[in-house]
Write a structure and sequence with these properties.
By secondary structure, the protein is an all-alpha fold. The chain contains eight helices and two strands. Strand 1 and strand 2 form a beta hairpin. The protein is globular, with a radius of gyration of 24 Å.
């Protein structure tokens, strides 16, 4: 009696622990691990994992590149060369195409935060392209923390501009109907107020899902070459060649996704910050979103 054919996703799940970009705790299944510190704190196991180290490396790289760049610009020097021009263009693009259309006069005040957010996500995404590394943003805990930071700034900008009372009352939509009007207004108020947290949660899930899905597809394609190991030489050569070719194409797609997702996360954060600064932001936010998107294009 023949054995049942296992589901393809089950096979992928069984192999996940062999792939470094799914392993948060170390580089390999056996041997070298990067748990440099591990202890219990209030019943929670705390450890320094690979992703934590990568995020520290990301922060150091950003500082090493942009601190000298900013010092040269502050001295009035003209940046020359593709290396410096490429990194300067990233900042210019975020300021002119993201911050300005969404925040208007407040753009220059909050653009340092948007620069930092974009660069951190971009560099973290790109680490997934390197062997034996992995994208910290393919971890929901990392994207969740980034979303919390965005949520703080979204609400901070609204409160800073309109005050606590003006910010909260901006979610109230007056319905001129007898009896049911106040009830509907109250329900809409709860929904709109909860929306500021829901939007941040969507930011976290969007970034995590896109980065994790890319790694999952890449791992699945590479598994085809692993599964035919030891088979007929012709079959093995053909499947391996196709698998490597598809993996190379996916790597270029992953590179595009790394930039795109960093941009989307930063743009939506700036968009929500801009909406929060307007009076009555709860009921006209969709108009602001449409205008900002049209202005960006």
């Amino acid at each position: 009696m023949s054995k049942p054919i296992p589901d393809a996703m089950d096979e992928v799940q069984d192999q996940l622990h062999h792939w470094h970009f799914f392993d948060e705790h170390g580089l390999f299944d056996h041997g070298v691990h990067l748990n440099l510190l591990s202890f219990d704190l209030f019943g929670y196991h705390v450890y320094i994992s690979k992703f934590k180290i990568l995020m520290l490396v990301v922060a150091i790289l950003i500082a090493a590149i942009y601190i000298p760049l900013c010092r040269r610009v502050a001295k009035g020097e003209i940046l020359k060369g593709p290396f410096w021009n490429a990194f300067e263009c990233l900042l210019t693009y975020i300021r002119n195409e993201v911050a300005k259309p969404t925040l208007g006069d407040l753009a220059d005040k909050y653009v340092p935060f948007l620069w930092t957010l974009f660069l951190f996500i971009l560099f973290a995404n790109l680490f997934g392209m390197l062997p034996f590394m992995g994208s910290p943003t393919a971890n929901i805990s990392v994207t969740g923390a980034l979303a919390l930071v965005s949520c703080f700034f979204i609400n901070y900008t609204g409160i800073k501009k309109n005050g606590v009372k003006g910010f909260v009352t901006g979610f109230w939509m007056k319905i001129d109907l007898p009896v049911v009007g106040p009830v509907i207004s109250s329900l809409l108020f709860v929904l709109e107020f909860a929306g500021i947290f829901i939007r941040s949660g969507v930011l976290a899930v969007r970034l995590f899902a896109n980065m994790f899905a890319g790694h999952m597809v890449l791992a699945t394609v590479l598994l085809f070459a692993v599964k035919v190991a030891g088979a007929n030489i012709l079959l093995q050569s053909g499947v391996t060649a196709l698998s490597l070719a598809a993996s190379l194409a996916l790597c270029f797609l992953e590179l595009l996704v790394a930039f795109l997702q960093a941009y989307v996360f930063t743009f939506l954060t700036a968009l929500f910050m801009g909406m929060a600064t307007h009076e009555g932001h709860g009921h006209d936010e969709h108009d602001h979103e449409e205008k900002a998107i049209q202005g960006n294009h």
